[in-house]
Model the fold of this input.
Amino acid sequence: MGDRDKDPNGRGRYLQRQDRLRRVLGQASADAILVSHLPNVRYLCGFSGSAGLLVLDADSATFFTDARYTIQAQHEISCAAVRIAKKGLLKAAGELLRGRRSLRRLAYSPAQITVAQKQTLDSAVARKVRWIDDMGSVEKLRAVKDPGEVSTLREAAAIVSKTFERTARILRPGVAELDVAGEIERDFKRQGAEGPSFETIVASGERSAWPHAHPSTKQLGRNELVVLDHGAILRGYCSDMTRTVFTGKAPRKVKSLYQGVLQALEAGKAAAKPGAKSKDVDAAARNTLRRAGLARYFTHSTGHGIGLEIHEAPRIGKGDETVLVEGMVVTVEPGVYIEGLGGIRIEDDIVITARGAEELTTAPRNLIEL
Ligand code: ZN
Ligand code: ZN
Done:
């Protein structure tokens, strides 16, 4: 097997990420880090399975998995030593740490490890170590995408954009929300995506006022708002796009709400640039809705990072001080939700560029009246 086959994503990319993490760990005076959150493991060594742990110290990287993944790990991992754990991954990682006495300060993610797992680990290490909070160090690295990641995210966004345009043609009164969701997810796969990046939302009528409604057997009615929030996962990377359509000729009230949300979306995207803070993007969208008298109907934050996870750093919310930098990929998704009438949300994915932001999702944003 050639190197290319073994690591289609490029071995260098993973080594670079590991080195960047080592520098962060050095600043935190940690001797090693135990990486347990699977998207973080995937980011650092390429493993895409469901059981894996990575221990990284100043000069080595060791990956632990179980026997089910022996062959897959050989294919996917070329930048860490692979160990197949017989009695649990944490126990095996703990035993490795036990043997390396110079490792005294160990970073880990308290948000990702249960108390029981921590006890297993402690008893396997069997000596006094200082566990320190990794402070989301891998998540912070992941927030800034490299060009390869941006191009995969662009492809994932193109898939959902295309799917929406095709789906809009089959939307009509009488079709059940679940059927629409099924069509969307089949279309993702036809385009080569692994599947949806989260449970597809198709919410019609009054249900469109629930920001996270699950699709139901309800059929689309006449003269209803329909919110479609959907995303594809491509080679591990997530897209996330929302469009809202109206099944009929939209009354003036709906049109004006829609324009308010659309303007908030455009204002949010225009505020997204290097050096701006997350809260500035949120405020741009929120203030636009405020001027239209709609702020009280906007009940969630303006956006979130996307990447190997559908929700990741940075959060685009009120008061968030994160400074945006080139390479961050985030959503901007203002919405209004009015009980009895319904909801309107429009969401795009954008990448922060050297000067501003580029839209990754491109499906039409004008109000589609069916
Ligand atoms: Zn969404
Ligand atoms: Zn979203």
Notes: The chain is about 35% helix and 20% strand.
